[in-house]
Amino acid sequence: MDVISSTIHTHTSNFLKSDTPITTTRTHYKHTHHLQVCATRVTPTTTTHQVLDEIPLSDTFAWNRLIQNHLSNKQPQHTLSVYHQMLLRGVLPDNHTLPRVLAASRLWGDFVFGKQVHGQAFKLGFGSDQYVVTALIDLYGRLDSIDSAKWIFFKSSGRNSVSWTMLAKLYLMQNKPKLAVDFFHQMVELGAELDNVALATAIGACGVLGSIQEGRKVHGIARKRGLEFDVLVSNSLLRMYIDCGSIEDANEIFYLMPSKDVISWTEMIGVSVKNGAFNDGLKLLRLMNRDGIKPDALSFSSVLPACARIAAHKLGKEIHGYLLRNGTDFNIMVQNAIMDMYVKSGFIEYASNIFATMKERDVISWTVMILGYSIHGQGELGVNLFREMEKDSRIGIDQFTYAAVLHACSTARMVEKGWFYFNRIRVPKVTHCALMVSLLARAGLFDEARIFIEERRLEKHPEVLRALLDGCRIHRQVKIGKRVIDQLSELEPLNADNYVILSNWYADSAKWDMVEELRETILDMGLKPKKAYSWVELRNKVHVFGTGDVSHPRSEGIYWELKSLMKKMESKRHRRNPDFSLHDVDEERECIQIGHSEMLALSFGLISTQAKVTIRVTKNLRMCQSCHDFAKFIAKTVEREVIIKDPNCYHHFKNGFCSCGDFW
């Protein structure tokens, strides 16, 4: 600390050496010429001078209020200018003036000026004032070093909870949460006063550290001090337990809180939605309203992903309507969340309308829309949108945006564009490489895809091999597909999906002994192939169907409708493609086509809604080729749009065509 002591002493020596009292003349400030230069960077206007001249010289409060106004308006340069004028008029600063001027120095980034104000504080006898000390700690910690800030702290007799907390925050700002926690415990051992801000800061540090053990220690201290259910402390505990992965502890704190604010509710809504408990998140939003707490922009941004599903699109629309009716702040975060909700609930046209009316867009806005167009089968629109975005120099294109445009290139099979954008990525990640392989494979360029994989040594990455396998499935490259399946089985011996695809490949080749052998292997290894399910929402109720399901109360009508449509299809000599050679669902190969889950959900939608109403179905696994062909025929025959979402994309069936162009 001797070096630091010497340095800080030098910084303040100009003021500490002189016995001359502070005067109002410029002569006194010759040795602090930088103070004048810095403080007068923005020359006060005539009007400003008139305002300053009207302030009584003895009214320090009025000067402080003017300084505070500039500081609150984020005008540190004006703050310093007013301070200079204050000194010239002979008005002595007090312990309220100096912290504000030090804060302005920090915000303006002028450490030299801040050091000179530090010296002046000592000269005026405010060196140990708690407000001044805290401001000095903040100044030195941010513009010099935390060691300098600690020296000031320990040399001062004006230490309090605020200055302790300020040092802990500085550690957090330097990404040193362990030191912040240790410093807090030192504070406790020395018997320092603890307030809610100090506890919240320490709890936050535990969350950043990801240490639930340390978090529980600080929680215990908060309980002993009677501050556990202070709203700020409780909210910090919620965030800490969530960050540490202990949702159970977070729930316990939340339901024990005697009073909750919008932050408390939003934290729990957000974690519920992130963990897939969508209904819980929506329920919490309703309870929050009932409790008299008005949701803010962040609350809605947290809950909207729960509506980003076809089955919840009505709730999403209701929330959008609520926002419009109640004049909630439609900031860019909320608009992005609404747009994402519409993209994922199947309403790409609504998302496009919101995007078109946005006055401001950030990189997330563009990325959501580019990817949105792509997963709805409009890859070329996604690429065009990316080109439009490039014209805005303010938008910083990140890895996620490049992934979105590569996805769009893959959807549209725009190989040259794909190569162009891929080569612009400085350090491509595996995700970018997988998208490039997907593009090449979907375009039927299997030799190029193979060379790309070999040159970049991507053979050990399952997502890359699956991208290649998708191309094999589309172009019926069964032999290449078999090699890829074998590679996947070696890489992921415990992934049942690989054995299912292999079994379907053997079944297509009529190698039934191998099919049976693989079934036994799956059973012996205790693996569980995924079951196919589809669901459709009707009158606020979700109806779920499995393969060959006959449990629904309206099963008879569902199957009758499908049989009737199948007969029409056969009478018009429409050919179906029953190819299951590279299909990744086990049970569907052996089930009649009208028993496939998406067909049951679609049929239920047809018999339960009025003519012309769009049917929206979600399936947890990929559609088979046969069902895809049947859905195109049904949409044309009944003259309705049918939207079926599977893990790969949104299939918009209309007039006998699908938006995916039969590439999925």
TrEMBL record:
It comes from the Eukaryota. PPR repeats lie at residues 59-93, 160-194, 261-295, 362-392. Residues 575-664 form the DYW domain. This is DYW domain-containing protein. InterPro entries: DYW_dom, E_motif, PPR_At4g14850-like_plant, PPR_rpt, TPR-like_helical_dom_sf. Belongs to the PPR family. PCMP-H subfamily. Keywords: Repeat. Coiled coil: none annotated. GO terms for molecular function: mRNA binding; zinc ion binding. One of its GO terms (biological process) is RNA modification. NCBIfam families: PPR.
